[in-house]
Amino acid sequence: MADVLSQGEIDALLSALSTGEMNADELKKEENEKKVKVYDFKRALRFSKDQIRSLSRIHENFARLLTTYFSAQLRTYVQISVTSVDQLPYEEFIRSIPKMTILNVFEPYPLEGRLLMEVNPNIAYAMLDRLLGGRGVSINKVENLTEIETRIMTQLFQRTIDSFQVAWSSVIELDPVMEDLEVNPQFLQMVSPNETVVVISLSTTIAETSGMINICLPHVVLEEILPKLSVHYWMQEKKKQRLSEEIENIENKIRRAPLIVQAELGRSEISIQEFLQLGVGDVIELNQAIDKPLSVLVGGEHKFNAQPGKMKNQIAVQVTEIVEEANEHE
């Protein structure tokens, strides 16, 4: 994002070129020169761009679910969207948030470790004001939260777990539990200061109040599911899913396909002359002995042996033996 210029910076650059403050030829020379990028080993990038994009997609869905949830709970205009997804040391994240804020700590079972959702006090108190019947005005008094206010806010943010669980369901089935609600980041040490974390910043607007909700995901927590965050894995999973669905559809169609099942009492060969002379009461001799099993044909193929009988006053046969395929081709 540092290489992308804003419209104001572009206008200033064009203005400097037109007034002669900057020389276009010098800029071209700088572009041709070999550029060296400084790498900070204290700020190791442990998530690939592919994984960052996957996390962004997951939390875009989470932002939509949160918008629906908070709109229903607060009964006012709520808009939440992902503004940035960055990876940085945990210590740097803690320094970037207010000294007194709302910190919701979650345990994302079956993953080991803890996740953090930091809610700006402006947003948190606008939510509290709406829940208590107000217009959603923000009054920052996070340093002296009452027990009732703490309880109300805990219940409100505890229900965001369901939205988080749904957003992550495409990657892993989580069963997160809210562990605690803190107000002072200095008392919260989830991971070591140098541990790399991904911070998803959600721009939040409630009525006329705006602020940020930051979700902190430590690398050590997501490490075992990082392969699942790659596009290649998702494509493979979708391909497997489509293949399994196609196989299931074929199996269902085969199961519902009609088959002709015939039980043969026996066979006999007669001439056309004898056939033309048949009448009521005539007897046809079959090649089937009375003590031999009947043949049951499925789709014209001999599949079972059976014995004749009755069931509920209906003529029926009882399967006594399954004919092996080897016997069929003998």
TrEMBL record:
One of its GO terms (cellular component) is bacterial-type flagellum basal body. It comes from the Bacteria. The keyword Membrane applies. Keywords: Bacterial flagellum, Cell membrane, Cell projection, Chemotaxis, Cilium, Flagellar rotation, Flagellum, Membrane. PANTHER family: FLAGELLAR MOTOR SWITCH PROTEIN FLIM, YOP PROTEINS TRANSLOCATION PROTEIN Q. One of its GO terms (biological process) is bacterial-type flagellum-dependent swarming motility. Residues 253-323 form the Flagellar motor switch protein FliN-like C-terminal domain. This is Flagellar motor switch protein FliM. It is a peripheral membrane protein.
